[in-house]
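Annotated sample (chain length 79).
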Amino acid sequence: MKTLFVLLGIGLSANLFAQGHGKKEQQQDAKRHRVMAAAHEAAAKCLEAGKGEKVCLEQLLKDCKGVGIGKYCGMKHQH
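Output written by the structure step:
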């Protein structure tokens, strides 16, 4: 039983260590969030200008290329 707890503790510690980010990774994540936020803000302005969902989504995908995940630049909302 004692061995089980030791192995469980090692596994949990390794998992927490693997998920940690250093300062450099945190700065890169922050930069990605800013790029995605700017892309979404531009998409909102595009929609407000009446350019249409298709046009605005195409621009969102261009603005977010290489940063966001999926066809909604890492964010999807309900319609």
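Annotation: The chain has three helices and no strands.
Annotation: Residues 23-48 form the longest helix (26 residues).
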